[in-house]
Amino acid sequence: MAQGDVEQAAELAAVFDDLNSQISRVIIGQQEVLFEILIGLVAGGHCLLTGVPGLAKTLMVSTISKALDLEFSRIQFTPDLMPSDITGTEIIDDEPGDGRSFRFVRGPVFAQVILADEINRTPPKTQAALLQAMQEGQVTAGGKTHDLPRPFYVLATQNPIEQEGTYPLPEAQLDRFMLNVLVGYPDADEENEIVATTTSAPPEDPEPVAGAEQITKYQELVRRVPVPESVLNTTVELCRSTRPGDSAPEYINRWVSWGVGPRAAQHLVLAAKGGALLQKRNAVTIDDIERLAIPVLRHRLVLNFSAEAEGITPDDVLKEVTETALA
């Protein structure tokens, strides 16, 4: 890395330390979850948050946006939500003397941090309204294209328990999420602290430690982090080994219908670059790949009925794949 990049990487590490300090004033525990969410942000990706209600997913996202002084918008996905409710719509202005003209009214997607709450509760056509925004950073309405603000970060939540009345995300949209972050229950000590603090005085708002311009520069910096050729080759091989075929391991052919695509390797390398910087290292190691392989790949793996019948999850398969590829 160039000297200027090294200095910027040190600045990012300091901001990350300050950010953790501010977030800990509001959020108790969930350190790995927060780490993965911040990787998605600095790597320029998007996150899918999977967890039962009441685990502070919304609070995490809003707290991060406040600590980074980013504009935050929450969209509650419901079965009757329409695409224009997200992206915006054109209205007719009828001003005296000026005649009629169309004016685009921006929807809630025009923010820097978007919380798409319970995204699997809305029909596919409304889910798809986010696709162009997530991939291109733009919205097209009335034949005109509107740029979204930078940085633009989507965090979508899913409830893994209730499946009745939901619409599973299509594979093409799942593939747009860089990470699928599992939000689990806190341990006993953390839960005691959560109950004690949240039933007394309300928490203080975090103080901003960075801004949109800085985050955008950090996203550009991530792409300049070097990756050794051996690590790159191992990452590609890891992703390729999830695909069924004549040369695939027996358990892959037994349990997997479709392995991960090339975008998985791209996102895994980018996430590893972001993770390395947040851990105050200026190059990617195989440990970064190992730590992030499951969060990056779990939502891209399509298992078959045999896996479901045997109670096999994507994480189970990926643990086997990762241990073999990174041994």
What do these coordinates show?
It is built from 15 helices and eleven strands. It has 327 residues and is of the alpha/beta class. The strands form four sheets. The protein has a five-stranded parallel beta sheet. Strands 3-4 form a two-stranded antiparallel sheet. Strands 6-7 form a two-stranded antiparallel ribbon.
Strand content: 15-25%
Instruction: Just give the CATH class of the largest domain.
Output: Alpha Beta
Per DSSP E runs of 2 or more residues, the count of β-strands stands at: 11
Q: Determine the number of helices (DSSP H or I, runs of at least 4 residues).
A: 15
Element order, helices and strands? HHEHEHEEEHHEEEHEHHHHEHHEHH
Shape: globular
CATH architecture of the largest domain, by name, is 3-Layer(aba) Sandwich
Q: What is the CATH topology classification name of the largest domain?
A: Rossmann fold
User: How is the largest sheet built, in terms of strand order?
Assistant: 2-5-8-1-9
User: Assembly type of the shown chains?
Assistant: single chain
Q: Structural class of the helix and strand makeup?
A: alpha/beta
End-to-end Cα distance, whole Å, is 28 Å
Q: Provide the domain count.
A: 2
Uncertain runs: none
Helix content: 40-55%
Q: Over the alpha carbons, how many angstroms does the gyration radius reach?
A: 21 Å
